[in-house]
UniProtKB/TrEMBL annotation:
Name assigned to this protein: Xanthine dehydrogenase family protein subunit M
Keywords from the UniProt entry: FAD, Flavoprotein
Signal peptide: none
Single GO MF descriptor: oxidoreductase activity
Recorded superkingdom: Bacteria
Record domain FAD-binding PCMH-type: where: 1-219
One protein family per Pfam: FAD_binding_5
Coiled coil regions, renumbered to chain: none
Length: 325
């Protein structure tokens, strides 16, 4: 690890000023510190934001509000979360080991870097790490890479389980920075790689994630998350699906679906949602709708299995959600 300057702050103003001057935010550090040890990331300055009052978890009107510094374990165990947004609790438990959940923050989880092995190999070309150097995964080991939203410059998947569920639930992100505060859908936080895969999010320099707001829609209390992976714990998704359904008299009136492990960002399945609207809540409807989930998919030599696994995962997630709807 290379030497760096360290600063601990107690106010958002001090944190934002330090980050605007080039410092990197440090919360749980479960991604950043690892990357610094491996010298994949070499920031010259770190600003520790753990003293900021951003660890709140509360029900507010028709929303659940979660501060960016709330730890994953705290959120997963919170009574309001488990009552109003069980999908969030389920996703967090599936997303990491107990040790990591005790340390990792909600904001940090959303901004974690990709887990493509070539990103961490300093002797391998990687456009995320070194723009213009090439993408080793395209002709290399690519079983865990994306089939949706890829480009000729990058095929890495976004690793966050939580982001998938937040996108499915139409959650909103609230950030503050040098120019004040702003809010936008969580889905708009993540960029497609296109020809600049090194730019992964839409935050402006110095902007700090303050909180996430999740609407308590009628479908939220029965939403479910299904994660398919090589082993049962401490593993990233090969394919995952967050599914929420509102069913009235056996007919689907609303559907919210997003997938992980298949896209270069958390992938909202709008075509599947549209195909479900007004249909009976049956396996036949789920299968017909899930069939459109792979439209536009670009498979690689090692990940073509995801073209079949994605629809099957969506169908099972919909069945799970439908059991409580």
């Amino acid at each position: 690890m290379r030497p760096f300057a360290y600063q601990r702050v107690s106010t958002e103003a001090d944190a934002i000023a330090a980050a605007a001057a080039g410092a990197r935010y440090l919360a749980g550090g479960t991604t950043l510190v690892d990357l610094m040890r491996e010298e994949v990331e070499t920031p010259e300055s770190i600003v520790d934001i753990n003293r900021l009052p951003l660890n709140h978890i509360r029900a507010e009107g028709d929303q659940l509000v979660i501060g960016a510094l709330a730890r994953m374990s705290e959120v997963a165990a919170n009574e309001d979360v488990r009552r109003l947004q069980p999908l969030i609790a389920e996703t967090l438990i599936e997303g990491a080991s107990p040790q990591l959940r005790n340390v990792a923050s909600i904001g940090g989880n959303l901004l974690q870097r990709v887990r493509c092995p070539y990103f961490r190999m300093l002797d391998a070309p990687c456009n995320k790490r070194s723009p213009g150097s090439g993408c080793s995964a395209i002709d290399g080991l690519n079983a865990g890479t994306a089939i949706l939203g890829t480009s000729t410059h990058c095929i890495a998947t976004h690793p966050s389980d939580l982001a998938v569920s937040l996108v499915a639930l139409d959650a909103t992100l609230h950030v503050r920075g040098p120019d004040g505060g702003r809010s936008f859908p969580v889905a708009e936080l993540f960029r497609l790689p296109e020809d600049t895969p090194n730019l992964e999010h839409t935050l402006q320099p110095g902007e700090l994630i303050a909180e996430v707001r999740i609407p308590n829609g009628p479908y939220a209390r029965t939403a479910r998350y299904l994660k398919v992976r090589d082993r049962s714990s401490y593993e990233f998704a090969l394919v995952s699906a967050a599914a929420a359904l509102q069913v009235e008299n056996g007919t689907i009136t609303q559907a919210r679906i997003a997938a992980g492990g298949v896209g270069t960002r958390p992938w909202r399945m709008t075509a599947v949602e549209e195909a479900l609207a007004g249909k009976p809540a049956t396996r036949e409807s789920f299968e017909a709708a899930a069939a459109v989930s792979t439209e536009g998919a670009q498979a690689q030599s090692g990940n073509a299995f995801k073209v079949k696994l994605l629809p099957a995962t969506i169908v099972r997630a919909l069945e799970m959600a439908g059991e409580g709807a």
